[in-house]
């Protein structure tokens, strides 16, 4: 992956998951998930559709309750928090939706300002405007400030979606399929952005993706999920140096077609 000046602290887990189980009726989705995200780390979570990646993310941000196991985020046990404490924690965990989830009737600038207006009521207009400009510059789209989402390309929308998540300065970023639906060149730009975000905003991140080029470009470690647990976790080369069937087929599908 791209080299930077970041430092990964392997003594500090910003997310620590142990023994996580979740079923819906008789459908056992998570079956014993253990996972650490270290401070400063970018971790890619790979897995086929329906293996439980989104369920895992929803449990991390407290939108779903697990049946068993523990999820510690920034030192707090997500399942034991009161609603106000959970809300406060969620402000430190930015979730960047696959769909970008922008408000169509608002300009880019208004979309970015919206989370600040809602969550930082003490900020002045000029502080909000300054913060919006800083983030727009960081994501490389300052010229779009007065545009509507409908006027943006797919790649630009994804960048603005990421910007809107960054505006609250989260400590952890969760990216859901950041490159899905994008051409290879735009995907590369998104991958570079994810690497730059870590450098500039000191985030630790989980990147959910099917795109191995993305995983290779952005992640320090990759974790392959299959049937509700992690089959293998390690550097890209460690994980994909195997001849093991499922992992090899994942690799072949991405790189040898
Ligand atoms: N609220 C729910 N009620 C019932 N079943 C659910 C619920 N949420 C998820 N599931 C089931 O859990 C399984 C895992 O879903 P999940 O969305 O986590 O998969 P995924 O790995 O994120 O897939 P994809 O890559 O397609 O997004 C699926 O079979 C899904 O139908």
Automatic annotation (TrEMBL):
Q: Which Gene3D superfamilies match?
A: P-loop containing nucleotide triphosphate hydrolases
Q: What positions does the domain ABC transporter occupy?
A: 15-252
| GO-annotated molecular function | ATP binding; ATP hydrolysis activity
Query: Per UniProt, what is one Pfam family of this protein?
Result: ABC_tran
Keyword flag Transport: yes
Q: Give the record's keywords alphabetically.
A: ATP-binding, Nucleotide-binding, Transport
InterPro entries on file: AAA+_ATPase, ABC_transporter-like_ATP-bd, ABC_transporter-like_CS, P-loop_NTPase
Q: Which residues form a coiled coil?
A: none
Spell out the SMART domains in the cross-references: AAA
Listed name of the protein: Phospholipid/cholesterol/gamma-HCH transport system ATP-binding protein
* Species this chain originates from: Chitinophaga terrae (ex Kim and Jung 2007)
């Amino acid at each position: 992956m791209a080299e930077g000046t970041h430092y990964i602290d392997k003594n500090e887990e910003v997310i620590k998951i142990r023994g996580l189980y979740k079923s819906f009726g008789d459908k056992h989705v998570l079956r014993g998930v253990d996972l650490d995200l270290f401070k400063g780390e970018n971790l890619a979570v790979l897995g086929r559709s329906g293996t439980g990646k989104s369920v895992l993310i929803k449990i991390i941000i407290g939108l779903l309750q697990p049946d068993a196991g523990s999820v510690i985020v920034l030192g707090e046990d997500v399942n034991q928090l009161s609603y106000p404490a959970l809300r406060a924690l969620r402000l430190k965990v930015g979730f960047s939706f696959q769909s970008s989830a922008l408000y169509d009737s608002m300009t880019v600038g208004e979309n970015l300002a919206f989370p600040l207006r809602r969550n930082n009521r003490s900020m002045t207009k000029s502080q909000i405007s300054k913060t919006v400009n800083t983030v727009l510059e960081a994501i490389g789209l300052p010229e779009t400030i007065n545009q509507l989402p409908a006027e943006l390309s797919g790649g630009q929308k994804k960048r603005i979606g990421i910007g809107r998540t960054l505006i609250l300065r989260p400590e952890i970023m969760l990216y859901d399929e950041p490159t899905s639906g994008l051409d290879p060149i735009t995907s590369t730009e998104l991958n570079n952005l994810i690497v730059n975000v870590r450098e500039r905003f000191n985030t630790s991140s989980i990147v959910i993706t099917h795109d191995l080029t993305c995983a290779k470009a952005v992640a320090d470690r990759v974790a392959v999920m299959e049937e509700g647990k992690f089959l293998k976790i390690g550097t890209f080369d460690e994980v994909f140096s195997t001849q093991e069937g499922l992992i090899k087929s994942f690799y072949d599908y991405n790189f040898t077609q």
